[in-house]
Amino acid sequence: MTTELSTFLDTVKKPELHIHFRGCLNANLFCNMLLQRRKEDHDQDLLSHLSQQIREYILSCHRCQAFLAALAKIPYHVSSLEELKQEDRKYLQQLCRNLWHYNKPRDFFSTYLLTGALGKQAKHYFPLADHFASYLKKQNIVYAELIFSVGEYLDMGMSIDEIKILLAYIHNQVQAVGSQVYYIFDLVRNFPIDVSIKRLEMLLEHNIDHFVAITLGGDETIHETGDFKKLFDIAAHAGLSLSCHAGEFADHTSVEQAVHILGAKRIGHGVQAIHSQKTLEILKDQSITVEVCPTSNQHTGIWKNIQTHPARTFFEMGIPISFASDDPGLFTTSLHQELSIAHTVLGFSIEELKTTLDYGFQSTFQKHTISRETI
Ligand SMILES: [Zn+2]
Asked: How far apart are CA 154 and CA 32, in angstroms?
């Protein structure tokens, strides 16, 4: 990395508009949090609070099975990797590193779902909240919109009160490092649409602090994007902002539906828009910000060659883009890393990177007075 780039990354204030809470988990932190939970709860079955469908998905993964089997042999009094004998520690770490390596999308989804083994109480996720806050500080991210897949926690049996405790804890930790965080609830396409509608209505009744928007992650091929219109209409009517993962696993028409039918003002990923001039023009003409996450796209296999990532074309066409890390822990990346790739691989000059940061600050869902230079 050149001195100019590293000085720029260290000093410039940044927004992060596309980052998932559990996606911040790295392999070591996951091991330590799981050992801590076993010690506190003496839980024989770490997956007991997960739905049958999710348990089966996890247990059909050999990497997950091997890791859980090794964990089961560790005595309950052990609460961190450091307490293990060197040989056992290295073995567990290796199995966990295997979990963080993906040969196909299913590998990634299995690992992601396994992170739900951390538990169903707010306190189980406090170390991850601490880690998230320190990540923002290290990356000089002064404003973040954190994507929280609320349905997954409700399915685990976490109560709304516990969810509120967790979100308030995250908010406090982030404030303590001098940054700001707001929440985007991901209503995940994999859940039945009527279930998501009921959940959204329930969330709205609870007046959750700092909840500013919804998005739609998950498997883009289950339903047409436009099928979620009622869900998005309810959110818009309640004054929430609208983002949507689209054009990730499905084609460019998903992006068009997200904009025209759902009314999304930001698109997560959107890479498949590159295959349609019409879709690109819609994004440009309506100033729809695309949250671009090159490393994530490479890991999930939707855009394997970063050198040809569409971010550059989007930018040159005048489409506002904001680089984002998506799942920095699970993909072993960071916002610095994404901006560094943009500079060294995609040919963005420092001035152009500043423009993308400005686009990000201009596209936030919460009104604020922050810019890359003001704090
Ligand atoms: Zn995402």
From this structure: 24
Cβ neighbour number for residue 81 with a 10 Å cutoff:
17
- Active-site annotation holds for 248: yes
Span 12-60, pLDDT tens digits: 999 999 999 999 999 999 999 999 999 988 867 899 999 999 999 999 9
Measure 325 CA to ligand 1 centroid, in angstroms: 9
Catalytic residue among 16, 162, 220, 248: 248
Which residues make up the environment of ion ligand 1, defined by Cβ < 5 Å? 326
Residue extent(s) of CATH 3.20.20.140 domains in the chain: 3-25+121-362
State in Å: Cα 20 to ligand 1 middle. 6
The residue behind tokens 């699970």 is 330
CATH T-level topology, domain 3-25+121-362: TIM Barrel (3.20.20)
- Report residue 186 as tokens: 């991901």
Euclidean distance between CA atoms 189 and 246, whole angstroms: 11
Average pLDDT over every residue of 186-206: 94
| Distance linking the first and last C-alpha atoms of the chain | 25
